[in-house]
């Protein structure tokens, strides 16, 4: 008896489902793509329990006849490919004929369709076995209903995430599909909240705010090229940035894709316009001839391969770079700006001087983040840099290893960035090379964070409604209870917004929208709320922004005041991000390097 057997169709379909059907969101993607390929002008999507209990997609497309309902559940049955040559110039979303049989094999599946008004048919199957096909009265189009996904495959079902997570994933897919098809009337009906109705529009920019949040309405449109080679898109102005890449949306011929080549081209294009660690928002629609892109490289068609990647990379980079350059309005990028004047970094008002002039804890040119620094600094008695802190009445152990702060003599600076200081060390004279930016960053950080008391909750009067968009609100929903416990009092306000009623006192001056977006990125990365760590990281960021920048010349008294305050810090060796602050060279080391000592 042969050990090699042909798998039964049901088993083969369930294996194929493992490639095509990862979660409810992938089912939604396949069903909506079929609706668009059928020429639908109206699509209605509904789901319950994150799509695990119910997922339904209804359209007004061309519909199917009774015999086609059977064929639709056969593997590799498709109306979109006739010959192998067709694969070289695909203009449809689906073409493999695997999606419907794969979905039907792992769910209770209903397929109702009609080619004309009135006369239609309904097919009902359970986990790959057709139970009934019956006539029904319905309008032209197709409705696919998927219930109890993976109910007979408990191992697969256990790999699904929480209902909240799956709900958020469904919003993400729906948002991308609706963005890419602005001429289609969409109705999204989740089992929580009111439906989202999107009438057809000529300009996809009109869908940015309802789908992605109010901030995205600020994106600026641009066009480069003409069909069949055209790049249309929307990019954020230089004053709108985010802490992660979650606001980049890429479409190739209407298909949402993840592509490293396009992301690399974007990354090079925004370099110099946005600071390191900040990311813009962008929604790009790339239109190419079908033969210029291969979509048949991934089971879910989420990745593509370009026929001429070098040409495409240069084009996308150049087009988006030009779009951001125009938004700068001829101003230099952040990498080209000249050093800020000294007065912006220091308080040189004679009425506020002590024996020397001392750096301020903030500057006026860094926007709202530094306003928060000022408010926090005022709250716990800002002190000039040469006064001891409450926690540092004696040098720390690390500071004692560096020196006691006496016998300092400022020699000058190198590149107006590195302070050169002579120190009377215990074993003889030493030369210290101090990075002024990270030294000041350490001093500010210990003032901002280490002397803070436990935060109190400050109510916002009036409460502020923050519109993040349905997808972001759905992603944030699982963490609302933990946020409440951490002092961020926020409640759902419709499907696309939260109302913020209170914040911890050290965050009271933060913009609630920016704060929630920062928290969401952190929560999804870490899966929990650790207020102490969040405060520590926030203050490290604020201290970095407020600290003296490189290429700023410091007078001798300011330089020495900064070094003395560094020695009063608990951790004077490194900045809050772990970068070294100073290098030491003893006289003996120097003499050996010049051959004066063996």
Automatic annotation (TrEMBL):
Name the Gene3D superfamilies on file: 3.30.230.10, Histidine kinase-like ATPase, C-terminal domain (3.30.565.10), MutL, C-terminal domain, dimerisation subdomain (3.30.1540.20), MutL, C-terminal domain, regulatory subdomain (3.30.1370.100)
Which superkingdom does the taxonomy of this entry point to? Answer: Bacteria
Domain (DNA mismatch repair protein S5) spans 208-325
Q: Which UniProt keywords are listed?
A: DNA damage, DNA repair
What lineage is this protein's organism placed in? Answer: Bacteria, Pseudomonadati, Acidobacteriota, Holophagae, Holophagales
Indicate the family of this protein.
Answer: Belongs to the DNA mismatch repair MutL/HexB family.
Q: Which Pfam families match?
A: DNA_mis_repair, HATPase_c_3, MutL_C
Q: Name the chain's protein.
A: DNA mismatch repair protein MutL
Alphabetical list of HAMAP family matching this protein:
DNA_mis_repair
Asked if the keyword DNA damage belongs to this entry, the reply reads yes
- Which InterPro entries does this chain map to? DNA_mismatch_repair_CS (IPR014762), DNA_mismatch_repair_MutL (IPR020667), DNA_mismatch_S5_2-like (IPR013507), HATPase_C_sf (IPR036890), MutL/Mlh/PMS (IPR002099), MutL/Mlh/Pms-like (IPR038973), MutL_C (IPR014790), MutL_C_dimsub (IPR042120)
Fetch the PROSITE patterns from UniProt: DNA_MISMATCH_REPAIR_1
Looking at the record, the residues that make up the MutL C-terminal dimerisation domain are: 410-554
Q: Which SMART domains match?
A: DNA_mis_repair, MutL_C
Q: What does this protein do?
A: This protein is involved in the repair of mismatches in DNA. It is required for dam-dependent methyl-directed DNA mismatch repair. May act as a 'molecular matchmaker', a protein that promotes the formation of a stable complex between two or more DNA-binding proteins in an ATP-dependent manner without itself being part of a final effector complex.
What's the gene? mutL
């Amino acid at each position: 008896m042969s050990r090699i057997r042909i798998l039964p169709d049901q088993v083969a379909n369930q294996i194929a489902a493992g490639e095509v059907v990862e979660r409810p969101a992938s089912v939604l993607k396949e069903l909506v793509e079929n609706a668009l390929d059928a020429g639908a002008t109206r699509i209605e999507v509904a789901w319950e329990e994150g799509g695990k209990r119910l997922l339904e997609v209804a359209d007004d497309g061309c519909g199917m006849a009774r015999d086609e309902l059977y064929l639709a559940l056969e593997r590799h049955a498709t109306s979109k490919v006739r010959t192998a040559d067709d694969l070289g110039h695909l203009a449809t979303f689906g073409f493999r004929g695997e999606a419907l049989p794969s979905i039907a094999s792992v769910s209770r599946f209903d397929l109702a369709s009609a080619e004309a008004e009135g006369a239609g048919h309904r097919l009902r199957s359970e986990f790959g076995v057709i139970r009934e096909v019956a006539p029904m009265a319905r309008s032209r189009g197709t409705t696919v209903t998927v219930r109890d996904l993976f109910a007979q495959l408990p191992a697969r079902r256990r790999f699904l995430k929480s209902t909240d997570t799956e709900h958020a994933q469904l919003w993400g897919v729906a948002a991308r599909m609706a963005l890419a098809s602005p001429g289609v009337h969409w109705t999204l009906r989740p089992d929580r909240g009111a439906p989202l109705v999107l009438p057809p529009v000529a300009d996809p920019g009109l869908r940015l705010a309802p789908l992605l949040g109010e901030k995205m309405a600020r994106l600026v449109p641009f066009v480069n090229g003409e069909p069949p080679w055209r790049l249309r898109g929307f990019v954020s102005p230089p004053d709108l940035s985010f802490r992660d890449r979650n606001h980049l949306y890429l479409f190739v011929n209407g298909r949402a894709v993840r592509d490293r080549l396009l992301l690399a081209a974007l990354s090079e294009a925004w370099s110099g316009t946005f600071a390191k660690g900040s990311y813009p928002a962008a929604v790009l629609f790339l239109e190419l001839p079908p033969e210029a892109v291969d979509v048949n490289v991934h089971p879910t068609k989420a990745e593509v391969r370009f026929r001429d990647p070098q040409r495409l990379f240069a084009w996308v980079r150049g087009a988006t770079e030009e779009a951001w350059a125009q938004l700068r309005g001829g101003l230099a990028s952040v990498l080209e700006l000249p050093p800020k004047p000294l007065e912006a970094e220091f308080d040189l008002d004679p009425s506020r001087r002590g024996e020397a002039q001392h750096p301020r804890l903030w500057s006026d040119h860094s926007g709202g983040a530094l306003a928060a620094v000022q408010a926090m600094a005022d709250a716990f008695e800002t002190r000039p840099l040469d006064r001891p802190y409450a926690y540092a009445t004696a040098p720390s152990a690390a500071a004692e290893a560096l020196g006691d702060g006496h016998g300092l003599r400022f020699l000058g600076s190198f590149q107006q960035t590195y302070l050169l200081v002579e120190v009377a060390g215990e074993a003889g004279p030493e030369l210290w090379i101090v990075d002024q930016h990270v030294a000041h960053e350490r001093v500010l950080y210990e003032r901002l964070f280490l002397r803070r008391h436990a935060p109190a909750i400050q109510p916002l009067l009036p409460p502020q409604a923050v519109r993040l968009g349905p997808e972001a609100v759905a992603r944030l929903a699982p963490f609302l209870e933990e946020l409440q416990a951490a002092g961020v009092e926020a409640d759902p306000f419709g499907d696309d917004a939260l109302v913020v009623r209170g914040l911890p006192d050290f965050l009271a001056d933060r913009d609630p929208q920016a704060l929630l977006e920062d928290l969401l990125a952190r929560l999804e990365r870490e899966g929990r709320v650790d207020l102490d760590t969040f405060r520590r990281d926030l203050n490290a960021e604020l201290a970095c922004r407020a600290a003296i920048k490189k290429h700023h010349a410091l007078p001798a008294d300011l330089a020495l005041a900064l070094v003395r305050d560094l020695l009063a810090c608990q951790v004077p060796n490194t900045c809050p991000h772990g970068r070294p602050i100073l290098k030491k060279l003893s006289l003996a080391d120097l003499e050996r390097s010049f051959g004066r000592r063996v």
